[in-house]
Amino acid sequence: MAVIGNINELPRIATREGYGKALVELGRQDKNIVVLDADLAAATKTGAFQKAFPDRHINCGIAEANMAGIAAGLASCGKIPFMSTFAMFVAGRAYEQVRNSIAYPHMNVKIGATHAGISVGEDGATHQCNEDIALMRIIPGMVVINPCDAVEAEAAVRAAYEYDGPVYLRLGRLAVPVMNDREDYRFELGRGVILREGKDLSIFATGLCVVESLYAAERLAEEGIDAEVINIHTIKPIDEELVTASAAKTGRVFTVEEHSVIGGLGAAVCGVLSENCPTRVTRIGIEDVFGESGPALELLHKYGLDAEGIYQKIKTAIAQQSAVS
Amino acid sequence: MNIPELQKMTLNVRKEIIKSLHSAGAGHPGGSLSAAELFTYLYFEELHVDPKNPQMEDRDRFVLSKGHTAPGLYAALAFRGFFPVEDLMTLRHTGSYLQGHPDMKQTPGVDMSTGSLGQGLSVAVGMALAAKMDGRDYRVYAMCGDGEIQEGQIWEAAMFAGFHKLDNLVVIVDNNQLQIDGYIEDVCSPYPMDEKFKAFHFHTISIDGHNFEEIAAAFAEARSVKGKPTVILARTVKGQGVSFMEDEVSWHGKAPNDAEFEIAMKDLEKAGEALWQ
Ligand SMILES: Cc1ncc(C[n+]2csc(CCOP(=O)(O)OP(=O)(O)O)c2C)c(N)n1
Ligand SMILES: [Mg+2]
Predict the structure, then answer these.
(1) How many CA atoms lie within 13 A of B209 on its CB side?
(2) Which of A266, A283, B69, B82 might form a disulfide with B77, Cβ 3.0–4.6 angstroms?
(3) Torsion of CA A109, A112, A116, A122, to 10 degrees
(4) CA of residue A228 relative to chain centroid, distance
(5) Structure confidence at residue A4 as a pLDDT band (50, 70, 90)
């Protein structure tokens, strides 16, 4: 696709908004859809669903582990629960309930995990879940999706609905550029999307890092480095074919995610490539540290996850590599 | 401090809550303001702490289990001398030692890092248990939200504390009646609280959490109770002291804009004039 215009001119909408919007549409279509919240309905954007279908919205109070169990029970009786809270409090707090009560019996529960990653901002480290992709990816049968914008989030909710089994939807608090608002946009579960073809290196990005990576690639292009940019919205099951083909073509790989470099997209890509096509991979993400309080955009900059930071890391890695070889 | 002095100090705490939140552009005013008297009483009357030696071994411990109301805790700590009052204006800024939620590794006087609701009480129980194991006489205080006690872990901690007769533990529930999505009674009611805690072998005391006579009497009573932990159920008004925030669910977790800031500070000034005359 042609690279989108100026990043500053794109409308900005949080992916959690797409989640809330899609739930209302699905709720109209299927009365088995129920939405659960844990005292964060305002933040998870399920308010519109609650308004439209008050009888199918269940506020469990501040009790996430209980909510996970209730969702499993509802699913076992034919409902399709979308349980919503912050990523920290479902992937973290309710981890074992998600594993044993939802995933082990392969319950048809969808987890809407908002406020993922460092872009939570001012609330700080206790609320910035940079570990959820790792935690969820490792659970057998769990599908993990990390949409890059609000349009993709809507599509991901629909795909999750169509899939029979547990799905983890990783959503953000921060309003991010909408890049997929076009006629020909399509979402296919488990399929990566080539946004920019290139021959020198591959950038596999997910979530809000996708658009930033595209701009980083533009900067690289100005210096004669031709980067391929691929949106990996489905982290599990990952698009092995595309990851392998792109790496085989370019011979150099970067992964970019708003998540720990341990266990997330970077690890998933390394897993695929080490078995299929050994390639040098640099993982860009949150190093092995906790986050901190601050405005979201300032933090993304500080932790090197905006276009500038991604560009710098890629440049540095390439320079170091050519110094060695 | 006598009661008028405590009231004046509380007013200062409330002003700093509003100022620091305004400076941060984000944060939680409602539950910080509702607990302002409690924070003030704890740090100026009840807790055996030393601002010059925040790690003093035999200090009393305080765990703010409802960590989002850190602005109230920070203001009390600052006025008590743990760090400069001016620094409150750095709340939630990148690089500040005053994180959005309490961080014991960064802020002098903070005994436990909290922010994920429902976890702090268990930690306080561990602290109280350690005192018993070592035969030490420091006391442990934990403050929970009335929404927070919907978390199952709170009741696991309560069961343990009652069973182990931790009479060096005082739990304070800030019963401001609101959580994020509405009144606690409408979301998932934890009432009746006193009977629940009684069933977990707690001594229970119900007070008006804005009345220093009742607050002082409750903490004194808690000291006299043997063989049981105490819970103080403090009835409060969320947003207390700021006219447009009082009992207003929308003021749980947002900062005042410039115009709102002016009104809030005026409200507090006015309350001050009444006190100082
Ligand atoms: C485990 C967990 N779940 C959800 C939240 C998000 N959250 C922050 S404050 C709050 C409401 C707290 O209400 P209450 O305990 O009554 O506190 P207060 O009214 O004193 O502010 C919620 C749900 C959290 N911090 N931790
Ligand atoms: Mg409350």
Answers:
(1) 30
(2) B82
(3) -140
(4) 20
(5) low
Task: Write the ipTM.
Answer: 0.91
Q: With CB atoms and an 8 Å threshold, state whether B100 touches A37.
A: no
Residue ranges of domains in chain A = 12-177, 193-324
Crossing angle of helices A150-162 and A15-29, in 10° steps, is 40
As a whole number, mean pLDDT of residues B190-207 equals 98
Catalytic (active site) residue A64: yes
Q: Which two tokens stand for residue A224?
A: 């004669």
Q: Which residue has the tokens 């991901």?
A: A156
Mean pLDDT of B35-59: 98
So what CATH class is A12-177? alpha beta
Asked whether the beta carbons of residue B187 and residue A63 sit closer than 8 angstroms, the reply is no
Question: Within its chain, how far is the Cα of A187 from the centroid?
Answer: 14
Cis before B4? omega within 30: no
Q: Residue A325 pLDDT more than 80?
A: no
Q: Which one is catalytic: A9, A17, A25, A64?
A: A64
Determine how many CB atoms are found less than 10 A away from the CB of residue A10: 16
Q: Which residue in chain B has the smallest CA separation from A67?
A: B151
CB atoms within 10 A of CB B220: 10
Distance of residue B171 Cα from the nearest chain A Cα, in angstroms = 19
User: For A270-321, how does the pLDDT look when each residue is reduced to its tens digit (9 = 90+)?
Assistant: 999 999 999 999 999 999 999 999 999 999 999 999 999 999 999 999 999 8
Q: Which CATH class is domain A193-324?
A: alpha beta
CA distances from A11 to A176, A194, B163 (A): 8, 22, 57
Domain boundaries, chain B: 3-276
Radius of gyration for the alpha carbons in chain A, expressed in angstroms and rounded: 19
A87/B contact by beta carbon, under 8 A: no
**Domains A12-177 and A193-324 alike in fold:** yes
Helix (H) / strand (E) element for B121: namely: helix B120-134
Q: Which residue has the tokens 């109209």?
A: A28
Alpha carbon of B268: minimum distance to chain A alpha carbons (Å): 26
Q: Does B113 sit within 8 Å of A293, measured CB to CB?
A: no
Q: To which CATH superfamily is domain B3-276 assigned? A: Thiamin diphosphate (ThDP)-binding fold, Pyr/PP domains (3.40.50.970)
pLDDT for A2 equals 46
- Please name the residues in contact with B193: beta carbons below 8 A apart, sequence gap of 6 or more: B146, B149, B173, B175, B204, B231, B233
